[in-house]
Amino acid sequence: MQDKPTDSLVSAGAFSDEERAAVYRAIMTRRDVRDEFLADPIDDDALWRILTAAHHAPSVGFMQPWNFVLVRDSARRHAVWKAFSKANDEAAALFEGEKATLYRNLKLEGILKAPLGICVTCDPDRAGPVVLGRTHNPRMDSYSTVCAIQNLWLAARAEGIGMGWVSIFHDADLRALLNIPERIEIVGWLCLGHVAELYDEPELQVKGWRKRLPLEDLVFEEGWQEN
Ligand SMILES: Cc1cc2c(cc1C)N(C[C@H](O)[C@H](O)[C@H](O)COP(=O)(O)O)c1[nH]c(=O)[nH]c(=O)c1N2
Which Pfam families does the UniProt record give (predicted)? Predict the structure, then answer.
């Protein structure tokens, strides 16, 4: 039998009431931020803590496939916004009638307002061709990168920094603007900045786009249930 690595274990006990409340508060009050960004720059230490939280996300085979491309330059962010704008016109054309009007009235990005953009990428080759846990589903490396983004989002919330995820782009446009090689997957463009206020429910719900589904309808016991 192998020796238990006691030196590298920490207690798995539950958090104190206060610690638990803080974790749930970060989860429940995290919002996708679009229009509420303030121009104030993000403190370097806070940014590093947020990136460290992202870097401590779980990843398949511990491959840590992520990179974080930080974009502060306003001319570059303007070019990213133009790429969004083109893709958003295409997206808007897919809706009809009232839904199209509502879509047009939604603000779906904070690329120019937020002082920092982060393009999060996934390198499928980070841990060689055979990755523990990825063999039967190649998407596991992308899923790992999404875990990093969620950690980043929650840590930002705890730091009082807002974040918005923008996905309305042609990959090729972001790739060209940021010099990202073909073999690297673009997972998300994140807008980060201080915010004065946050919606207390998802903005898409507040603006009548879609409601939060009842959890009871989404939880199945023992197998799939067709409603
Ligand atoms: C993968 C992915 C991609 C996007 C998003 C999220 C995720 C997870 N969201 C944010 C999304 O609309 C938001 O999370 C939901 O509306 C729920 O709101 P809260 O995040 O709880 O505020 C998002 N929002 C937006 O305005 N423009 C966008 O392009 C995207 N893209």
Answer: Nitroreductase
- Give yes or no for residue 34 CB within 6 A of ligand 1: yes
Atom of ligand 1 nearest to the CA of 108: 26
Check if the beta carbon of residue 71 is closer than 8 Å to that of residue 125.
no
Ligand 1 nearest atom to the CA of residue 199, by list position: 22
In this predicted structure, the answer to whether residue 227 has a pLDDT above a threshold of 80 is no
Alpha-carbon distances of 86 from 55, 72, 83, 179, 204, rounded to whole Å: 32, 21, 5, 19, 21
- ipTM rounded to 2 decimals: 0.99
Pocket probe mutation, ligand 1, options 167, 169, 170, max atoms within 8 Å of Cβ? 167
pLDDT per residue as tens digits for the range 42-52? 999 999 999 99
The amino acid that residue 136 corresponds to is H
Q: Does residue 36's CB lie within 6 angstroms of at least one atom of ligand 1? A: no
pLDDT value at residue 62:
98
> Could you tell me the distance, in angstroms and rounded to a whole number, from the CA of residue 200 to the centre of ligand 1?
15
Q: Phi and psi dihedrals of 212, rounded to 5?
A: -65, 135
Q: Is the pLDDT of residue 5 over 70?
A: no
